[in-house]
Amino acid sequence: MSFDATWTQALGALTVLLGAGFMLLAAVGVARLPDVYCRSHALGKAGTMGFLCLTLGYGLIASEPSWLKLVVAIVFQLTSIPLASHLFCLIAYQRGAPRHEPKARSEQPPPPR
Amino acid sequence: MTALLLVATLVMLIAVVLGLWRVIVGPSTLDRMLGFDLVTLTLAGLVLVFSALTGEGAYVELVLVLSGLGFLTTVAYFYYLTHLEPEAGAQRRDKAHSDEQRDDMAHSDAQRRDMAHSDAQRDDMAHSDERSTTGGRP
Fold it and tell me: Do B22 and A40 touch (CB under 8 A)?
């Protein structure tokens, strides 16, 4: 029984670590990408996945987790984060936010053969 | 397990610092809002990890409140942007559309068709207005 408990807890800790890695990915995307649209894309996808992994890991670690609250938190975040990301893109487009434009094809070096 | 959770806490603290950096640096207000959203989300995750570290189950409600608060702040800010500042947004959008017209020929063709369509609609509305005004004034 105790072996099962520790095994579950180790799995939960690994899941929490995976979620933290996704959070870091979202943060790096928000900090490094050149554009409002790109940043909102990074936050909307990696942030959702990271929070999902964190909540599942907490549910695996905790001794008696209240799964109802965890499921409510997961469902709420799964709906609200992509919605907020979409709103970011919508408002940025309506206000004419500058778009990052890569170099034109002629200015780019030719691809190596 | 505790060491793994501490490593996860460190990683998420780095994520919070990156989000705060975007809040400070961000060229537009939308960028700052995005960084704040990231900070709120990561903070909710940090509360979860803290709850797992201490074994206290009551912090999950704090996670619920934090996530709801972050989403509500975002929506309130968008309401402010769209409903309380409509003129500035409309002007900037027109400017962006004219830029697109200059840049992209195919797109501008489609837009010209749209504009012609809307012109026809406007003509219809004008005619109906005339009809209504003449009907009202015999």
Answer: no
Report in angstroms the alpha-carbon separations of B110 from A95, A96, A113, B96, B100.
21, 19, 38, 16, 11
Interface contact A59, partner B, CB < 8 A:
no
Helix (H, G, I), strand (E, B) or coil at B56: coil
Name the residue in chain A with its Cα closest to that of B21.
A31
B62 Cβ under 8 Å from any chain A Cβ: no
Which chain A residue is nearest to residue B89, measuring alpha carbons?
A95
Q: Please report the ipTM that was assigned to this predicted complex.
A: 0.82
CB B11 within 8 A of CB A21: yes
Q: Are B79 and B95 in the same domain?
A: no
What average pLDDT values come out for chain A (113 residues) when binned by 10 residues? 71 92 93 90 92 92 85 92 90 84 66 65
Domain that holds residue B121: 88-129
Statement to judge: residues B102 and B58 lie in one domain: no
